Amino acid sequence: MYFFIAIIFIAELIITATILFFVIKADRKACELSDKVLTSRDGLIESIKCTRELIVQAKEKILAGIDYLSRKQRQYKMKMIKHILMYVLLFSLRGRYKKAASICSMIVLAKEFYDKNYATV
After folding, report:
1. pLDDT (tens digit, 9 = 90+) per residue, 52-68?
2. Do 108 and 86 contact (CB within 8 A), yes or no?
């Protein structure tokens, strides 16, 4: 019986020694990693700051792009509304007043020519 208890005690000592060995080894690696982080801390902080600046600039560019697209969308919608109104006016005048319709069509043609050749974006 004492022999069995002695074997169990020795086994527990071996297990405890192995666990302590791995804990000490992990502690050394953690200390080495901590030293590496401390030595490269300034570089990490600078990298984080640069990354933050890049993200802020990207956000500004994206917001500017969205604003530009929304302005272009509004301009496109206004042009479409103007064209639709002009052609509705043209078709309504064509039936009653043929001379007024031809004058309107010439004005529309001149406006389209001007928009294509001389308009600035």
Report:
1. 999 999 999 999 999 99
2. yes
